[in-house]
Write a structure and sequence with these properties.
alpha+beta, 3 strands, globular, MarR family transcriptional regulator
Length: 72
């Protein structure tokens, strides 16, 4: 899995979000289907992007308490 392609896809998903501030919950299964890989590869790629500081990971404070991703 190419992290640059994943970063471009996630960045465009977040930027197209209508929420303020812009954030996105990411379905690893849907993204894996788009790239034709296993969801585990997407999860590890996202974790690498978070660790490298390309995206930020947070959690919603109100229900449904999903993990959300934001641009730094």
């Amino acid at each position: 899995m190419d992290n640059n392609q994943l970063l471009n896809r996630i960045t465009s998903m977040i930027q197209s979000s209508t929420k303020k501030p812009k954030y996105m919950t990411i379905s690893t299964v849907k993204v894996a289907d788009i790239f034709g890989v296993k969801p585990e590869e997407i999860e590890s790629g996202i974790e690498e992007l978070v660790a490298e500081g390309y995206i930020k990971k947070s959690k919603l404070e109100k229900p449904p308490y999903h993990d959300i991703y934001l641009l730094p």
